Amino acid sequence: xxxxxxxxxxxxxxxxxxxxxxxxxxxxxxxxxxxxxxxxxxxxxxxxxxxxxxxxxxxxxxxxxxxxxxxxxxxxxxxxxxxxxxxxxxxxxxxxxxxxxxxxxxxxxxxxxxxxxxxxxxxxxxxxxxxxxxxxxxxxxxxxxxxxxxxxxxxxxxxxxxxxxxxxxxxxxxxxxxxxxxxxx
Length: 185
Known about the structure:
By secondary structure, the protein is mainly α. It is 65% helix and 0% strand. The longest helix is centred in the C-terminal third of the chain and has 23 residues, at 156-178.
């Protein structure tokens, strides 16, 4: 039987798909829930579920599900830590960055950052193997963290802030391990 937590990513993805379907059918692609400079803070929380069309949403869906499930192998707390880390690092971008952004890619980079960093922090064979697997499988995403290697129109700052959120989440989960807290709910 599949643990209930493994249904979270498809449910979260369904929210993004429903938003995009409604956006395209009812608003002609103009209903974006992006975080914009000077906009409401709610944009920070809605931005991952808003996309600029089906192309970016399909691409993000293909990365989001497997990376989410890999983090969920560590438990619900690890997955929640990544989301909190991504949101925490998005707030300075919302406050200080002159351009808005949206899409699941920030969360994707947060998941990747977590998976790459947790193995090196814990130095256990199983988590090191997971980190190396993710580096080998998903390392091709890393150049989009840099502005000069990111495609035009893609929010490299959203990628970078999400990645940093994932690193923060890994450090937090590592701290829990050091203090004796259980990583598995």
